[in-house]
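Why do we bother with a discrete structure alphabet at all? Because it lets us treat a fold like text: something you can write down, compare, and reason about line by line. To make this less abstract, here is a complete entry for Mechanosensitive ion channel protein. Read it the way you would read a sentence in a foreign language you are learning: slowly, and without expecting to understand everything at once.
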Amino acid sequence: MRLRTILLRTILLMTLAFAGAHFESAAALAQEPQTQAAAETPIVDTPSDQAAKELEKAKVQLGSLQDSVKQNADNDDALVGIAAKADELSRAVITISVNLRPRFDQIKNRLGEIGDAPKDGQPPEAEIVTQERNALAAERAQINAVTGDAENLSIAVTKLVNEIIEMRRRLFADTLFRRTEISVSVLDDAAGAFVREVSEFSQALSSWAAFVWKFKRFPLFAAIFLSLASALILLSGSYRLFGAYLCRDEAVENPSYIGRLSIAFWSTLIRTLALAVLLVTSFFFLNSFNVLRPDIAPVIGALFGTIGLVYFVGRFVNAIFAPYEPHWRLVKLSNLGARSIGYCLLAMAVVNGLDYLFGTVSEAMGSPLVLTVVRSLIAALIIGVILIAASFGKPILARSGDPDAPGRHWPRGMAIILRVVGAGLIVTALSGYVGLARFVATQLIITGAVVATMYVGLLSGKAISRQESFGDTFFARFLTRRFNLGPVAIDQVGLLVGLAIYAVALLVGIPLILLLWGFHVQDLQLIAYRLFTEVKLGGISISLLGICTGILLFAGVYLLTRWLQRWLDGNVMARSHVDLGVRNSVKTGIGYLGVGIAAIIGVSAAGIDLSSFALVASALSVGIGFGLQNIVSNFVSGLILLVERPFKVGDHVVSGTAEGIVKRISVRATEIETFRKQSIIVPNSELINGLVGNWTHRNKIGRSEIPVSVSYDADPQKVMDILLELTAKVPLVMRNPEPHVEFLRFGPYSLDFELRFFLADMGDSMTVRNNLRIEILQRFKAEGIEIPLPQSDLTIHREAPAAIANEGRDVRPSSADGAAGDDEHRVRQLRGRTAEASLKS
């Protein structure tokens, strides 16, 4: 028994121990995930913390840029790259500040909802509310601090950008106005350096050519093939689109002004671009395939640039001056004058190109600066001499107009300008300012050619945009055949083509001019980016890209609304046999709703703050409260008229006592011009609330009537046939609906008819009615049909007084007959006078 008790106690203790261990392990297991989860849960940074970290990175980057500026103070290319990086940093800092704005607004709204902390004597608030207020206040203070740092950093970046701009401006000025002493010893040093440079460059070129031919033959041919393919693709596409404007037709003896301008502009632009594509792609592929060595690559690039420059000037000379085709010439020059000026321009381009090419060779070979100076001096002297020699020529077309005849001298002002510029180049170069002389000479040739080509392009666009001018071109005839366009549509296409030519001329010419005047590609990219994304107008920032996006979104939503209107009206409501009035109301309501939504989406996409419209709404409400109901009513009515368009400019309307042609519709009033050329200004609210008749609402078709009256002796059917016959001869009268004649009534003295016919344009009604009345009168006279005059019969009954007094007595018949005859005579006279008075009236 005792043994059993001991065993039972032992088992119970073991059970309790096991259970305790189990519960402890379970509790440990239950706590372990929590601990592990707590350990593994990352601490999430607030937006202000993330912004602070990004600002620290931006500060480090700003310091690096400042150090780079100090190290590259004399390197313009390096400064351009640093300026681009600084601009990117500035936009990044602004983005950091802008991204904090939503969180700041959330904190501000939440603090407004929580309210201020309770004051002394007020009931205490919950601890969780106090903690939340304190946390939000701390975060708001942190956001303010980060925003302040971002503003200071943005100011520092802007200051750095301004410093870079000032340094680049100073470098450009120093380069232009750097003076070099010109002496015999300088020329001797340049000659010796030139001999050494030729020897070194020939060795480098021969070694590079041998290396390429031995080890880089396949990449060389691959690069050439790809470059030629790119240029041929551009040329073939250009010939398909502008083939008629790339070559002159020798069979045309007297080409039009538009034809000459178009061929001059497009032949110069397209062919030069094709060569540029060939040269650029060639250099790109040669460099990408490692065919070019570091010392040879700049020389090849300069060679390609020289070829492109000379070709462009040659195309320009051929397009403008047409030395051997006087009937295609755009300026009034003789044949000899056109050839001489063309040769002078081409010679100056060759001199400039060779100067640039040899200068690049000197830089690649490490030649002394004196060689570059002397080479630029020689180029400036040659160009100055060419200008002075050209000023003594006789290039102007003879007064007889014969291009083969000897020409006339330059106008006196032009000759003086050429001599002054040529002499100025020579004097400037000999004075030691070789850089300035070289810059001026280069701009005279290249910038002059680019500006002249742009001007020809603008003239081409202007000529094509002129009314009824585009229809004579090859492209217009193609569009007419292909799309069956009418004259009006072709004229509108001509306007768009003219605008497109304007855009091409400006978008190609302006960047080229900027590049020639010292700008870099990075500068142009930065200008384009700011132009499309951030245009400052006072305190307002406008994004052209955002505005274009907003316009596209508005157009898309509007088109979607119009499609939804047609689909609901033609499928849903029409099949459900909904009343026509209900259908129109639903259709109009969807149209207004869609336009409103499209406007909101477009304005938001354009980056315009919709909250600014609250000021307009409040101003309108205050205006209404101060008695501007009529103005606001006219304003809203004007918006309704502009959107709903019950009438449009050019419509023939009748409103109350005003009848005429609508000339202008504004948001306050509508201008109606009467047929007596009187302008009547009608408030829009009267047009909305009153009755308005529109003769040309849907179209200009209208009915016109001519009343006709004939005597009772006329045959009615013959009269109707004559009227219809005369109407059928008028070409302006519509055949459907066909004209018809109504026999209206039996008048007191005539048979009354009315000729009714329809005209395609109600504006022709007066002329048609006038001509028809003349034809009807002449035809009725020829047919013997009388148009009666108004007349009335007057009968007078009269008794003799003597007969009444002597009733029963004998009266002499002769006297009674005489009285009756007199009365009859008076009645005839009275009837005749009545008819004469009616005729006069």
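What the structure line is telling us, in plain words: The CA atoms of residues 146 and 234 lie 53 Å apart. The chain has a mean pLDDT of 78.
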